[in-house]
Write a structure and sequence with these properties.
Length: 411
């Protein structure tokens, strides 16, 4: 009897398996299944993190999931039906590579592949500490205004994050611009955690998320434009002079208390520039002599650039020079239409003062000329560094005649 029961049980299981096989085959015929990769990448969630621990490095990681399911399931499958996660409930600390698990809300369906199959994350003890807030002011207020020292509330914040990264944070920083401002600047900013080298530290939460920074912008007394005059000492070398003087900027802005500015003269003098025995042009920076109670506002430093042009002093001289005849044949004589020619010269003062007038010559060249009337352009010779400015007249009339043996002239 027991043998019969055993046979019946075996037949029952065989029948059940055959029924499932025929059902699956019928289902496949009626509604085929297909395997494919879901079109949208699935975000990965960290699950099972113990209290006092923190995981990082997985932010933004997504995976692609390959699924096998009937067409009816594929048609209704949505992103929220697919849950990808990694379980850290029973792992240690450090950098870990953990498998990605996927649960499907729609059934029947199964996950056939996950890409990537594993994800590397860091698991550490959660740490926190208080650090100061440093305010970095950028830019400068408008002309005529000055920024006071910034204030921040609160002056310290609490940071939280992985223990190894929290240890690196030495302070937090906020940046506030006051460029061209004419009034107080007040705003809320999110502090940035940084290390001793002022490099940012990631994965840090800050409590509170924002701090309030205030920078008072104050008007500086009274601002006034003042011309610049250059103070000179000494004289250039003999024969030289200052031909031009240019100051950059020619006008500066000063500030101070209203009464002090109003009582100041309308100009500022520079420190003296020594010109003693100078022979060349020069460009130099020279400090301004600032009266007590006044400060320079523009340019940023109390100095200007002075450019002095030095040139030779030139002198003029007018000479009446008797023409010298050259090249006239021995059998000819000439009559010059003027007794002297006016020659106007110029040159360096020291050269002109020592000029020997006998070194200035004016020649009428009559080479190869036959008897007759001519107008000859004179040739004037002068020493070096002297310039011929003019010759009056520019051409000299002459008459050439033949001398006979009796001493009479023939034309």
């Amino acid at each position: 009897m027991s043998r019969g029961i055993s046979q019946n049980i075996s037949l029952f299981f065989i029948s059940l398996l055959l029924a499932f096989f025929f059902w699956a085959a019928a289902t496949e015929v009626e509604e085929p299944t297909r395997t494919g990769t879901f079109s949208t990448q699935i975000p990965v969630e960290v699950m099972g993190l113990p209290d006092g621990m923190i995981a990082y490095g997985e932010n933004g990681i997504r995976v692609r999931v390959e699924i096998k399911a009937p067409d009816s399931v594929w048609q209704n499958l949505r992103t929220e039906d697919i849950h990808a996660y990694i379980d850290v409930s029973e792992v240690g600390t450090g950098t870990l590579s953990l498998p990605v698990e996927v649960d499907l809300a729609q059934q029947p369906a199964e996950v056939t592949a996950v890409n990537p199959p594993e994800i590397a994350i860091n698991v550490e003890q959660l740490a926190e500490k208080e650090v100061p807030v440093e305010v970095i002011v950028q830019g400068a207020p408008a002309i005529g205004f000055q920024a006071d020292k910034p204030s921040v509330v609160p002056q310290t914040v609490r940071i939280q994050g992985p223990e190894s990264l929290v240890r690196k944070v030495s302070k937090t920083q906020v940046f506030i611009s006051i460029a061209d401002k004419q009034e107080n600047v007040r705003s809320d900013f999110a502090p940035l955690p940084v290390d001793e080298n002022e490099d940012s530290v990631p994965e840090i939460d800050i409590i509170p998320k924002n701090v309030t920074v205030n920078v008072s912008v104050l008007q500086l007394g009274y601002v006034r434009d003042m011309a610049v005059t250059v103070s000179l000492e000494g004289q250039p070398a003999p024969g030289y002079r200052i031909a031009n003087l240019v100051v950059d900027p020619p006008v500066v802005k000063v500030f101070g208390e209203i009464n002090t500015v109003r009582q100041a003269p309308g100009f500022l003098q520079t420190q003296p520039i020594n010109l003693e025995a100078i022979t060349q042009s020069l460009t130099t920076k020279v400090a301004l002599q600032m009266p007590e109670g006044l400060s320079i506002f523009y340019p940023t430093r109390p100095e200007v650039t002075a450019t002095l042009t030095v040139e030779v002093i030139r002198s003029g001289l007018t000479l009446a020079v008797t023409p010298t005849i050259r090249g006239l044949r021995n059998d000819l004589t000439t009559a010059v239409g003027v007794e002297t020619v006016v020659v106007i010269l110029s040159g360096p003062l020291n050269v002109m003062e020592n000029l020997d007038v006998n070194t200035v010559s004016l020649v009428l060249n009559l080479v190869n000329l036959a008897p007759g009337d001519y107008t000859i352009v004179p040739v004037v010779t002068v020493p070096d560094e002297i310039v011929i400015e003019n010759i009056i007249p520019e051409a000299v009339p002459i008459k050439i005649e033949v001398i006979n043996t009796l001493g009479r002239r023939f034309e």
